[in-house]
Specification:
Blueprint lengths: L2 H4 L17 E8 L19 E2 L27 E7 L8 E8 L3 H4 L6 E8 L2 H36 L47 H4 L7 H8 L21 E7 L12 H17 L11 H6 L1 H11 L1 H10 L5 E5 L13 H7 L16 E7 L2 H7 L8 H5 L4 E9 L14 E12 L4
Antiparallel strand pairs: 1-6, 1-7, 2-3, 2-6, 3-4, 4-5, 5-10, 7-8, 8-9, 9-10
Length: about 450
């Protein structure tokens, strides 16, 4: 589902404008066609696109990350691209991309450290620097032109209205509408310049329509991933094919909105049944009084129920479900410097974010700095990457597929890149911290 489906203009009234969010969401927008033939390459991504699956687009065709960064630490096989996010930073004169890779050997490597990795890449070539400088100057000039336009409109309006009913030196001094007012002892002319406020002078509301419309603060995530405007495509570009791959789809980025929906969690229907079971267990054993999970024997006999118990007992999972249901099509959440949406509050990854201060490992390549949350992949991405919604999908494919709840990427606050990492093409790649909250097994 694309963002156009999520945020249809015909459904604006369905969104709660009072709820504000600093998060940017990514939605699947269109499939990537990787077997293009001929001179037209409009369906192929560039580094200025955000997409899931397919083959990565490197910052320079001749510059790639270290082989170890693309290899699973467990089975030593090459990994497949899960996400490529164009993530430029405001005020920086270089392009920047975040890559997330995952091992396709899920039967052997799922839930093992090193089976999913994140890479940050930047390019500081002169062509990119000049391009960004030009874009920044053009944006500043546009803002200045808009400000001058509003100022000129205001001045013109004042000039046109200030003398409407003022006496002119070349006309009789008597105002036919002036003189004595038999109903007013002050005999003041409400239309003269000396009598009260002039309802025709300038704007009775103090500001023009254009003036009252405040200039919007530039949105981040590099102005919503550069407004998702398709960039100029190279005359000819082919996708690399040396890595295993999932199905590829372009991702469209938009700001997070919240729908006006009932605040009843999806798992509420299970909660009613579980509460009945708990009451039954408590009646049978006084030793279980106050224990929401009931007897240990019933938990062993019904592991599915135990999993549901754990979900309902976890306020973070409930918050995750309640937040996602506003925009169920989201495959990506981006909030540089913000907080991730935790899939659960129990595992080691959750403990790192819930500790005070947050206990995310410092970057080894810049030990004096810290890391901050940047983005996370959402479960809907699994459906699109593996095309689970296809009619011919088999149950075995689902069970043997990816089983993570969310993938969280944190990057260096200073966005530092060691000089020795840059190659002759002024491109550098480095691994960043990647935390995976896995789906619980039943």
């Amino acid at each position: 589902m694309s963002s156009h489906d999520e945020y249809s203009s015909d459904e604006e009234e369905l969104f709660d404008e009072s709820q504000k969010s600093d998060v940017f969401l990514g939605f699947v927008d269109a499939p990537i066609v990787s077997n293009q033939e001929g001179p037209e390459d409009n369906d192929l991504p560039t580094i200025e696109d955000t997409f899931i699956g397919g083959q990565p687009i490197w910052l320079n065709p001749n510059s790639t990350p270290k082989e170890s960064s693309l290899t699973c630490d467990n089975c030593q096989k090459k990994m497949a691209l899960l996400l490529q996010a164009f993530a430029p930073m405001d005020g920086k004169l270089y392009d920047r991309v975040i890559y997330v890779f995952g091992c396709k050997n899920t039967a052997q490597c799922s839930k093992k450290k090193g089976s999913i990795k994140a890479i940050r890449g930047i390019i500081k070539d002169q062509e990119t620097i000049n391009k960004i400088k030009q874009e920044t100057e053009e944006a500043a000039k546009k803002d200045l032109d808009e400000k001058l336009k509003l100022d000129n409109q205001k001045k013109l309006q004042i000039e046109l209205t200030k003398d409407l009913f003022k006496k002119s030196d070349d006309k009789p001094s008597e105002n036919p509408f002036g003189g004595s007012n038999p109903f007013d002892t002050k005999s003041s002319n409400p239309f003269s310049s000396g009598g009260g406020s002039n309802p025709f002078e300038a704007n009775p509301f103090g500001k023009s329509k254009e003036e009252t419309t405040s200039t919007k603060k530039p949105e981040s995530y590099a102005s919503v991933a550069s407004k998702n405007v398709p960039k100029t495509k190279p005359t000819k570009k082919t996708l690399s094919s040396n890595l295993p791959e999932y199905n590829g789809s372009f991702v469209y980025v938009d700001t997070e909105k919240f729908k006006k929906i009932d605040n009843d969690p999806e798992l509420e229907k299970y909660k009613h049944l579980i509460d009945m079971d708990v009451e039954k267990d408590n009646e049978g054993s006084s030793s279980n009084k106050g224990n929401r999970r009931g007897s240990s024997s019933s938990a062993v006999l019904d592991p599915q129920r135990t999993k549901i118990y754990n979900m309902l007992d976890d306020k973070y999972f409930e918050a995750f479900a309640n937040t996602v249901k506003h925009n169920p099509g989201q495959v990506l959440r981006y909030n540089l410097g913000g907080k991730p949406l935790l899939y659960n509050g129990r595992d080691e990854i959750a403990k790192k974010f819930l500790s005070k201060p947050v206990n995310i490992p410092r970057p080894g390549f810049n030990p004096s700095s810290e890391r901050q949350f940047e983005l996370q992949l959402m479960p809907k991405a699994i459906i699109d990457l593996e095309q689970i919604n296809d009619n011919d999908i088999q149950i075995a494919d689902i069970l043997n597929g990816m089983s993570w709840g969310t993938i969280i990427v944190c990057t260096d606050v200073e966005d530092y890149m060691p000089e020795e990492e840059f190659d002759e093409n002024n491109v550098a790649y480095i691994e960043e911290w990647c935390g995976v909250q896995w789906e619980e097994s039943v």
